[in-house]
């Protein structure tokens, strides 16, 4: 449930954190509506349009202000993490209906700790709370690379189960885990997310560029798409486009936003004049 904002964005939103965050209770946060789900757009780099969004949980603490996940996640026990993950899943599906009613049928991505997958009734939650719309594109669950490779056989079985529930898996933070490029063929995924560490300065750093290009080529060979995380420089964005990267996220493209501000941004963008070659496409084609 972590995100990839830069330091300036974090400083702009966060307050002075005086209370002991180790004592933050998820039950208390849920009871008092301190939790919220924000959305960071995922941009189609080729078509230059919105392709989806990543759901990110935020906590509005009455004394500490707006908290990023890493500021309180480490202090949570497994039961609290389960509740937080369920909240993220259910809230995101409810928000999808709000977005769809405004004409934006986005496919949403959610971060889920791989260790919790066997303990959360994800298929049951999706069956109970999924939008009742034929246009619902399903969910993407993002699992970090290091977590996937720790128990690959179990992840494969879970991935098979998820297919019947319109749930796909993404490898998050690829490149910084323990697997090799050759192991990509054994990982059950439809989307690979390049770690921001390698995206940063990929336009000038030969090693980073080679890692990004190799990952992109291999993912495409296996029929998957690639998302570059943490794009914050125009030169890197241009380099990734040349490499054939499919999608991008980062502060250069769009910051995470609360639901209402995210929806307003979608509406404003949809009202802008479009290039002639895109004018004939409807909103669902451009954002789904």
Q: Nearest-angstrom radius of gyration?
A: 19 Å
Write the H/E string, N to C: HHEEEHEHEHHEEHHEHEEHH
Shape type: globular
Beta-strand proportion: 15-25%
CATH architecture: Alpha-Beta Barrel
CATH topology: TIM Barrel
Structural classification: alpha/beta
Distance between the amino and carboxyl termini: 22 Å
Classified by CATH, the class is Alpha Beta
| Unreliable segments of 5+ consecutive residues | 6-18, 275-288
Mean pLDDT: 84
- Largest sheet entry: 8 strands, mixed, barrel
- Helix content percent band: 25-40%
Going across the biggest sheet, name each strand in turn.
1-2-4-5-6-7-8-9
Count of all domains: 1
CATH level-4 homologous superfamily:
EAL domain
The number of helical elements comes to 11
How many strand units?
10
Oligomer: single chain
